[in-house]
Amino acid sequence: MTEFKGLGEVSGKRVLVRSDLNVPLDGTTITDDGRIRASVPTIKALADAGARVVVTAHLGRPKGEPDPAYSLAPVAARLAELLGAPVAFATDTVGASAQETVAALGDGQVALLENVRFNAGETSKDDAERGAFADQLAALADAFVSDGFGVVHRKQASVYDVAQRLPHAMGGLVATEIDVLRRLTVDPQRPYVVVLGGSKVSDKLGVIDNLLGKADKLLIGGGMVFTFLKADGLEVGKSLLEEDQLDTVRSYQARAKELGVEIVLPTDIVVADSFGDEASARVVAATDIPADALGLDIGPESGKAFAAALADARTVFWNGPMGVFEQPAFAEGTRAVAEALTHVDGLSVVGGGDSAAAVRTLGFDESAFGHISTGGGASLEYLEGKELPGITVLED
């Protein structure tokens, strides 16, 4: 391989790759390396082509200065294991260590810079401050490859501004994500079913608004379902509820009816006396949630109904778990949806974030799904019809 996505010959060139390596840590132990594994193909392709690969990424939300709790050092070690080759680690972002580490790279070698958010310029809202940091990043490289889909909805220095300063290309991971999302929004195969969960309905309003005219069915679970149930006049007890969204939900229900889009809500709910109280978990009808109970998952009959609604789907997008899947007593609704997706005869897309984490936590074979996104927020914003700055900057 001598060319990379329009950059021409990359052998001997320093190529800055913006990856998404924002993985969960327990101390210094990586608990889910999915994003690192997803980043490997582009990094390896560049290294195999003889590029001197300089990877930049973030971890967590440090406050614009070094914080050992968010160091990418554990990620560098795991990346090396997955690549089967050493990964040099710079202990700063653009300082002496970064400059020396990059200067020491040979053709086909890889380096990882320390957490890019250790520099306040990365996330600054001030164009000049962000640009000054982007100048320093760009000085480390001859070309730029954008491969961190989980951040392309952010106008940040290592995502947006660097692309304005260097010859640039879209990495394989980002290209695949965009291709899949276009298939969800432009002439999708039907029946097209969207499954939405997670905690807040307000997080999904834009998606619901944009997909109501595209999907055939909308299945609602997770904490957000209680706002839908309350909008129907039902008791939801101590369950998560966004009172300020009730009128919006009612307007979506009316619009769905006009458009012939079926909104499927759970008919039974797993409740408990308090969050995390698995011992008191019990199943009640969605019409009979006790005033002192807390809904934490869709019930078994709802799981079967959701699976049945997915059985003949040719296109499925799923974002957000059906319950608190990290706790066994409240994981079965999410498991039922995930299992149903593995049998979809067509395109099944797991929309990143907690949905992707749930698939791995519950032990599913990732290859059983059509696509598992690496960017929950970016996926949602694309499906809302929003412009993604990290994509538009590449399309010149």
TrEMBL record:
Pfam families xref list: PGK
Broad class of enzyme this protein falls into: transferase
Key words, A-Z: ATP-binding, Cytoplasm, Glycolysis, Kinase, Nucleotide-binding, Transferase
Catalyses which reaction(s): (2R)-3-phosphoglycerate + ATP = (2R)-3-phospho-glyceroyl phosphate + ADP
Binding, ATP: K204, G295, E326, G352, G353, D354, S355
Localization, UniProt: Cytoplasm
Molecular function GO labels: kinase activity
EC number(s) reported in the record: 2.7.2.3
Binding sites annotated in the UniProt record for substrate: D20, L21, N22, R35, H58, L59, G60, R61, R117, R154
Pathway(s) the chain acts in: Carbohydrate degradation; glycolysis; pyruvate from D-glyceraldehyde 3-phosphate: step 2/5
InterPro entries named in the record: Phosphoglycerate_kinase, Phosphoglycerate_kinase_CS, Phosphoglycerate_kinase_N, Phosphoglycerate_kinase_sf
PANTHER family xref list: PHOSPHOGLYCERATE KINASE (PTHR11406), PHOSPHOGLYCERATE KINASE 1, CHLOROPLASTIC-RELATED (PTHR11406:SF23)
Subunit comment: Monomer.
Similarity annotation: Belongs to the phosphoglycerate kinase family.
Descriptive protein name: Phosphoglycerate kinase
Gene: pgk
